[in-house]
Specification:
Chain lengths: 349, 307
């Protein structure tokens, strides 16, 4: 008995000494990332960690709104960087949650592609750098349906063989923006008749839907639980790579385009390391590794040489000539957002 | 809760008289920090004005409760009518939790009796076996449940294989799946308190009743059930209350097509709505409902013991 205790004690002591030693050599400091789930390869984090001798910690979220909620509920000052989508960058800027990146603080800022260097949601890239961009549409199982899929009617007024086999994303913005495209009404419309019609249309569509889920958007297509899934283009590509016989749609009515951006948070505890990380992600080789993993598109020049060859021809990233317009989700003003909230509650009551 | 006050230490010696206040300090501190403070914050927030996209403005407002009980149309400018939306969501959650509780009772009670009637040395092993699945994270267990139940999952394959059904049973994304998920999540909370009660029960009472020609059903109903009732009530509360606020099973197994209380509240904090006072108000209404249930059962129990 005593010998066991003794051995346990010595091992613990040894472990403590080892970890102390490790603590002494490790880390110029920490970097705390708040990121989407399944969106960055672990090897890339390890590479950054090794190159700059920084201890990287990452938490994840599953929607732009839950990112905002967590930061509002006391998350500020905990995280150094986060990865909000386009409209959320604008909201977070207006909420005063983002720090300004001064001129010259990012040495790789010039690598940003011209089309993303001055976006409407962050003019002049004062707070953010591009991470990945892509689209939100839906994918259809070709085992179940072989008709034309490039119409939003597949989601909102589906043919009989697809009814009851549809998974929608569980976020208001993505569902209601797609619904507005389907009806051909502007986002954040103030027209009451259009809003009433939107309310009725989604309620009439709901019986066709099997579930609302974002986290398992890919998994339900791979497993065959549903035949249609609203999904992001990269996720659809990965579902296809995992064996789902699906095709990603580019509806003629239009589809959602988004860009996720790495932002510098106000009160970042490790501001220096955050800037190092942003510069690191502006290196073509590194951001190409994200693209190879996530299957979206980087907003940085010079990545082509580092990309998997099949990405060039990936159908999910190459809209056909007759595809509808890609539109960004808009952040609506309060009085319109409240009507949208009401429509969403009516839909899910 | 309500029963505790009456049993105060009138007959205790004066050994701890001076120190009693200080000895109770940890208990009071725990109550204050873990119960009173969070509930107090929630109560205050539910009466504040909402800030757009989450957060509160420090101005008094009834609006959250008004929104819960009154419907003013899509644009908020119609004369108020009774709002059924949230009452419906609450009713749905109560119904799901109720069915899950009954399922747990139907399986949990015989299980507990089975364990309590094993040889004393075997009992801890059975109890241990009941708790083993609960060493695994709830999320993982819920996802696994979905794998089992899905249209081309093992359950349907097996039933198809032995020819009981000719079409796969469609269970995932239905209410039944939610009820099964809740039942599976909280079953041990039913088994363990009932087991504790049945173990203390003296089975020679049942034998005596049987010797006096009581049929088995009567023995169960008149002798065993009254004796173990406190365990059953405790088990039902322990299953019902967490089921009421759960959102993992409804989201993953039920397909999140309809809000439950838990997901409705979550949406106010994590979704687009960003309406913290309304989330707090819905939580307070839920808490009030649960307290009424608990007080009611405590009074029932107290009355029974007094008899």
């Amino acid at each position: 008995m005593t010998s066991i205790v003794k051995r346990a004690l010595t091992t613990t002591a040894a472990a403590a000494v080892l970890s102390l030693g490790a603590g002494a050599v490790a880390a110029e400091g920490d970097l705390v990332i708040y990121h989407w789930f399944e969106y960055i390869p672990q090897e890339l984090l390890d590479k950054f960690s090794e190159e700059y001798d920084v201890n990287v910690v990452m938490d994840t979220y599953d929607s732009n709104e839950s990112l905002l909620a967590a930061l509002k509920a006391g998350g500020m000052g905990t995280y150094d960087v986060a990865v909000p989508g386009d409209y959320m960058v604008e909201i977070m800027t207006n909420e005063g949650m983002l720090d300004v990146i001064a001129d010259g603080e990012l040495k790789n800022k010039g690598n940003i592609s011209e089309e993303w260097a001055d976006p409407s949601f962050d003019p002049g890239r004062k707070h953010s750098i591009p991470y990945q961009w892509g689209s939100t549409s839906f994918a259809v199982s070709r085992d179940v349906y072989d008709g034309d899929i490039n119409t939003t009617a597949i989601l909102f007024d589906p043919p009989e063989e697809l009814s009851g086999q549809i998974n929608m994303l569980d976020t208001q913005g993505e569902v209601l923006t797609m619904a507005a495209l389907h009806m051909g009404i502007p986002q954040c419309t103030t027209d009451r008749d259009q809003l009433k019609a939107l309310n009725q249309m989604v309620q009439a569509a709901k019986p066709h839907w099997a579930s609302f889920n974002s986290d398992t958007a890919k998994e339900v297509l791979v497993s065959g639980d549903v035949a249609v899934g609203q999904i992001w283009d990269g996720f659809a590509a990965r579902a296809r790579a995992e064996g789902a016989n699906i095709e990603y749609a580019f509806p003629k009515e239009g589809y959602v385009v988004w860009m996720d951006n790495v932002v510098l948070l106000k009160d970042a505890p490790n501001r220096e390391n955050a800037l190092l990380f942003m510069d690191f992600l502006l290196e073509p080789e590194n951001i190409a590794a994200v693209t190879n993993y996530a299957r979206y598109v980087a907003g940085v020049d010079g990545v082509e040489d580092f990309l998997d060859p099949e990405l060039k021809t990936q159908p999910e990233a190459n809209p056909p000539a007759d595809a509808g317009p890609g539109v960004f989700v808009q952040a609506c003003p309060q009085e319109i957002q409240e009507v949208y909230d009401q429509i969403w509650t009516n839909l899910k009551k | 809760m309500a029963g505790g006050a009456a049993s105060g230490g009138s007959s205790q010696s004066d050994t701890y008289a001076g120190a009693r206040v200080w000895l109770l300090l940890p208990a009071w501190a725990t109550l204050l920090i873990l119960v009173v403070a969070p509930v107090g914050i929630m109560l205050v927030y539910s009466f504040l004005t909402k800030e757009f996209r989450g957060g509160v403005i420090w101005e008094f407002s009834w609006e959250a409760y008004d929104q819960f009980f009154f419907n003013r149309g899509l644009f908020g400018d119609e004369p108020p009518r009774i709002e059924w939306t949230y009452i419906l969501i609450f009713w749905r959650s109560i119904w799901q939790a109720g069915v899950a509780t009954l399922l747990s009772l139907a399986i949990g009670f015989p299980t507990a009796c089975f364990i309590a009637t094993r040889a004393p040395r075997q009992r801890p092993i059975w109890v241990f076996l009941v708790t083993i699945p609960y060493w695994v994270n709830l999320l993982i267990r819920t996802v696994s449940m979905k794998f089992l139940l899905r249209d081309n999952g093992p359950l349907n394959e097996a039933l198809l294989g032995i020819g009981v059904i000719s079409e796969p049973l469609h269970i995932v994304n239905t209410n039944l799946a939610v009820q099964l998920g809740l039942f599976y999540s909280y079953l041990p909370f039913m088994v363990l308190p009932i087991y504790a009660a049945v173990e203390r029960y003296n089975f020679s009472l049942s034998e005596a009743a049987a010797d006096l020609y009581a049929p088995r059903w009567t023995v169960l109903r008149r002798i065993l059930l009254p004796a173990v009732k406190p365990g059953i009530v405790a088990g039902c509360i322990l299953v019902f209350v967490p089921s009421l606020g759960s959102f993992l099973a409804p989201d993953l197994l039920g397909g999140a097509r309809n809000f439950m209380i838990g997901s409705l509240i979550e949406e106010q904090f994590k979704g687009n709505a960003g309406n913290w006072p309304f989330g707090a108000a819905a939580s307070m209404i839920l808490l009030t409902l649960v307290l009424i249930i608990l007080l009611f059962s405590a009074r029932q129990q107290g009355r029974q013991e007094a008899r």
